[in-house]
Design goal:
about 60 residues; mainly alpha
């Protein structure tokens, strides 16, 4: 449930960023498309999730030794 909550927050952030892109299209920092930003957030989120899953599996394995 915790992971889904974070994903919801990322989706919210992505939509806020795309809203900002429409307001300030000339800002060079915001020249990237909403999709690029969303993909970056997704990649970051998936990386964190994968790390967390590995960490928890290792911890459970060690606890069971």
């Amino acid at each position: 449930a915790y992971i889904y909550h974070n994903e919801g927050m990322l989706m919210e952030a992505a939509s806020e960023i795309s809203a900002a892109l429409k307001i300030m299209p000339d800002d060079p920092l915001l020249k990237r498309t909403a999709k690029e930003i969303h993909d970056d957030l997704n990649n970051w989120f998936n990386g964190i999730t994968a790390w967390l899953v590995l960490f928890l599996h290792k911890k459970m394995w060690l606890d069971n030794q």
